[in-house]
Write the structure tokens for this entry.
Amino acid sequence: MASVRIREAKEGDCGDILRLIRELAEFENLSDQVKISEEALRADGFGENPFYHCLVAEILPASGELLGQGIGSKIIKKVAEVALDKGCSQFRLAVLDWNQRAMDLYKALGARDLTEAEGWHFFCFEGEAMRKLAGK
């Protein structure tokens, strides 16, 4: 079984964070949507007023498949712990509709599917639409 250590991200992790973002985007067939740089991650997450909080899961290698070893559960539990420690009342996750394994995990851990329960859809303003809204 793999050993997992979850820790606060450090500025020096930004290269690995970007690599993981790109790998996830490739897995989700969304590589063309990655429009962030290592420098932007560093500035946005480790500046005077960070826009995001990041945890790093260090997974010590084990032979065989990593799926089904509880790594995702450990990560989500740590996110809940950190969120509560920081005074958050909730955290939200986005998952593509074809990723049933992730949806099943989140539900098993107690999450409500807001699309099913309340009909929520997520929207994103970016690029030209965002500039137009801002009048720039």
User: Anything to note?
Assistant: The first strand starts at residue 3 and ends at 8. The chain has two domains: 1-89, 92-135. The chain has a mean pLDDT of 88.
